Amino acid sequence: MNMYDRDALVRERYGEASVEANLSAVLDPLFLQHRSVRAYRDTPLPEGTIESLVAAAQSASTSSNLQAWSVVSVESAETRSRLSELAGGQKHVASAPVQLVWLADLSRLHQAAADQGISAEGVDYLEVFLVSVIDAAIAAQSAALAAESLDLGLVYIGGLRNHPEEVAELLGLPDRCFAVFGMCIGYPDETKPAHIKPRLPQAAVWHREKYDAAGLAEHVEAYDLESLRFYQSQNMDRKQWSIHSGNRVRGPESLNGRDRLAEALNRLGFPLR
Amino acid sequence: MNMYDRDALVRERYGEASVEANLSAVLDPLFLQHRSVRAYRDTPLPEGTIESLVAAAQSASTSSNLQAWSVVSVESAETRSRLSELAGGQKHVASAPVQLVWLADLSRLHQAAADQGISAEGVDYLEVFLVSVIDAAIAAQSAALAAESLDLGLVYIGGLRNHPEEVAELLGLPDRCFAVFGMCIGYPDETKPAHIKPRLPQAAVWHREKYDAAGLAEHVEAYDLESLRFYQSQNMDRKQWSIHSGNRVRGPESLNGRDRLAEALNRLGFPLR
């Protein structure tokens, strides 16, 4: 499926700090190769590609088979350009040939129920909203891996949540439908290669039997060093992970307008009871 | 990666109603083969398996590299049995050799920030909670596909959200940490094979350029018939999809206690501002 070197991928993912070399001895390298791609070639996607990605997405698990998600594929340059602005001026949203906008969609379920005389008030609850967000994320990630298996590159665009109502209007979304994130899709521009980003050591995210925060400070310290090594290698002027990430969630003012997401969702038809 | 017949998988997924045969001409069948497995063999997982699944999960996209998720792997029979009860008595939770509990985890980020003198009040907002839920779902789905590529079976367990506080206590979760769903993992018991569930036609979930609900009633009608055919073939006594699904979200009383999820999350340290 992929011609990557598995051991090299594991080293890139966990850096110097962490991992036994035999960790992924049997795993297809596809599952280790992800990097966020922000530079794309003009090459259009072969016919049938989006159909394939949607089939992969629909084949993924969905809570109680409710299938509470949808996707809008955007190829129009004008719409991509507008989405790029709404996402905070991310140029790759305009330049990638396809933007997939993944939707938490309770409108279809609500309508299908209504057509059977069922009022479906459950969709007004936070739980069912979460079901639709989780469904969308699971579907999207299956499509993402499918895309990467076809040598395409991608990056998720959470920036669409900066302006949920404007995105909904632009894409003609009905009530009870919310653009959870976008996803740029295209062939990577190999003259501007993307790199694998190191992650926290496994011991920081994986707990056996019970949650154990005992070693956390040590793991974060090791990863902070690893993150600095990575930023340096990329000529990125950025503070270590814990400071950079802490600043991302410092307060409402650091959330790019998303501190009002609950209000926006209410307006889009999600009371979040 | 898989020896499945791609065309046969597409037919099973979309039934009679839908799909051009060439839809997935180039897609690895892995992306089409999913079925929820609820009957497992006793066979333990080979050494290094969970390590591999965690590496796949960590290789997936994460919003702004915040890595706002964790996972608890449960192998203890006693804990699996208790989780099975909390999930509404789902026997496969007790019988699968491994349960992976996927966590929306803002506690690590909050602590790492605090250790740098950053108060990180942003984690109190719905947006950052959603980031952690989405991160967990994306990570989990990469692990799920990785597991299936290793011939393992799985099923997501949303039932853990019936009793979020009890699950948190059982697994020793810190504040700002929430078990989004579980995941049974094990080798499928081939004497009780699971079947591919048909999904809605692509046209019902995939919109080009703009959301278009025009054909919805027709798509749902076709799928309702398909769902009845499937239930019949499985000797399941169940109404068509739109009625069955509508009843799942009929009102607060149909949500298995999850109508109080917002309150439970508040108690677990998520004010959801």
Automatic annotation (TrEMBL), chains A, B:
A Pfam match: Nitroreductase
Boundaries of every Nitroreductase domain copy: 33-187
SUPFAM superfamilies: FMN-dependent nitroreductase-like
GO molecular function ontology, one term from the record: oxidoreductase activity
Keyword RNA-binding: no
Keyword entries, A-Z: Flavoprotein, FMN, NADP, Oxidoreductase
Signal peptide coordinates: none
Superkingdom assignment: Bacteria
Record family assignment: Belongs to the flavin oxidoreductase frp family.
Protein's name in the database: NADPH-dependent oxidoreductase
Protein source organism: Natronospirillum operosum
